[in-house]
Amino acid sequence: MIQYLNKAILFSLLLFSLLLLSAMNSHASPSPTNPSLDITLESIDDSRQALYEFIGKGQWVILNIWGTRCPPCREEMPELVMFHDEHKDTDAIVLGIAIDFPSYGYAKKDEVAQFVDDYLIDFPVLLSDANITKKIGLGHLEGLPTTYIFNPSGSVSGMQVGGITKKIIENFIEKNKAAPLGSANK
């Protein structure tokens, strides 16, 4: 009788654990993998460029959303420039989207252009506001800087809020190169 009771308790605990895990997973926000890239943004040279011109073209794309007056954005910028310069001709590029900080409104073109000159940024920089992440299906912008890493097929493989380094990006790409396109080892 005791053995039967122990099995019943064990089975009940196992069932409860599975139900609890299932309930937790049903409330987790889905990870964005296929954002809408059919959105055109203004660049600092007055041209307009669509995100699909950069993303899903066979290279990793480091989409960095930043502001000119954001201290962590200023701190990470030399790392992003270095990464872009070392990888742009082979396997990855950086694409910047500047928004105003601290208002999170539309970026001021003259401030962004001066920032690009000051930091010797040679990767493409587009202008927008904090709603850009919602517009392309990546959810609410949680803070600056925010970096999304798109794999060569154009799916989001990683995301980080806060400063990022060249080494973090390189390690992430190396770890995820072997993963089937469209999936990631986050």
TrEMBL record:
Residues 30-178 form the Thioredoxin domain. It is found in: Cell envelope. One of its GO terms (biological process) is cytochrome complex assembly. The keyword Methyltransferase does not apply. Gene3D superfamilies: Glutaredoxin (3.40.30.10). GO terms for molecular function: antioxidant activity; oxidoreductase activity. InterPro entries: AhpC/TSA, Thioredoxin-like_sf, Thioredoxin_domain, Thioredoxin_ResA/DsbE_sf. CDD domains: TlpA_like_family (cd02966). Keywords: Cytochrome c-type biogenesis, Disulfide bond, Redox-active center. One of its GO terms (cellular component) is cell envelope. PANTHER family: THIOL:DISULFIDE INTERCHANGE PROTEIN DSBE. This is Thioredoxin domain-containing protein.
